[in-house]
Amino acid sequence: MKCVSAALWLLLPVISRGEPISITVGTVSVITGIISYYGLHNYLWGSSRMEGAVNVTALQVDFDQNVFGQHLAKQVILKAVPRFLSNENPKKPLALSLHGWTGTGKNYISQILVHNIYSEPMRKKCVRTIVATLHFPHANRVQEYKDQLQMMVKSSVKDCERAIFIFDEIDKMHPGLIDAIKPFLDYYDHIDGVSYRKAIFIFLSNAGGEKITELALKFWRAGRPREEIKLSDVERDVYLSAFNKKDSGFWHSSLIEKNLIDYFVPFLPLEFTHVKKCVLAELRHRGFVEDEELASQVAKDMTYSPKETKLFSDKGCKTVSAKLSLHL
Ligand SMILES: Nc1ncnc2c1ncn2[C@@H]1O[C@H](COP(=O)(O)OP(=O)(O)OP(=O)(O)O)[C@@H](O)[C@H]1O
Ligand SMILES: [Mg+2]
Description:
Layout: H1 2-16, H2 21-37, H3 40-44, H4 56-66, H5 71-85, E1 94-100, H6 106-117, H7 120-126, E2 127-131, H8 132-135, H9 142-159, E3 164-168, H10 182-185, E4 200-205, H11 209-221, H12 231-244, H13 254-257, E5 263-267, H14 272-285, H15 292-300, E6 304-305, E7 312-313, H16 320-327
Parallel strand pairs: 1-4, 1-5, 2-3, 3-4
Antiparallel strand pairs: 6-7
The chain binds adenosine-5'-triphosphate (ATP) and magnesium ion.
């Protein structure tokens, strides 16, 4: 921060030749404003970033530039997370459950979020990703896994009170296992002298994906833009399919029964136009010029469902990167 500001102020005499001082000061403010607006702030002044906090504007820019077709997820996360992080005395930890078809951006949005909250060294300390099939593969060891889960949450929050836990593939978790973390998500001031109320728990799953797709299809058939889908149109269905399906990871879970999940966040299935945007973004990230023609070709390489309409990409944007490599 200091060196760039100093550089800008050194430029003052050059900029200000013949200009009133107020215009020059204004110019510097505009430049610094642009820098912070575009999220360059954290990049340029990494050491002075506010760890465990989030710049809403930078997060919104990141979402808008990189995440496509997910207006509901963006809306909910942009509202819930900054508000939670700015509360110094939350009553309980924040719990978000992200649901949707494969390749629709659940992991991706979680990663963008944690990158906006923590720098790399702090991510190592404060962010834990738990993958059901990797960490808890055996059905006959559930009790042991429950103990491990509790230990992991306890030690992480001891190290970092604003720890973020991402539970991936929750629908592949053995029934009952996730209930081991219930005490940490509840409205307790302290448990054994430690407060868990500033932590964030994010659950990712495919449960409810069919219901979300049905609704998106219904809107499309009625000629209504998908952006008109409201959270209330779909939240209940997602919640019920998570609670009632044996293979949802939340089957009859006390986390749901006791209303400890704050938001059920639906991820909509992605259409051809979204897949095309994913290809363009991927080109940009790899340093290539955005090429509409190529993006259409790659998007056409993906398969689409249902049979009659071929509206939604079967794998969302998940294999876009691999498919694009075949064309480069
Ligand atoms: N909505 C999206 N906007 C932009 N890119 C996306 C989107 N969804 C997915 N992608 C791209 O596809 C990749 C895979 O997506 P991601 O891992 O987030 O899928 P997922 O929803 O977690 O799927 P799964 O249920 O299979 O785990 C991302 O890294 C990103 O490059
Ligand atoms: Mg995923």
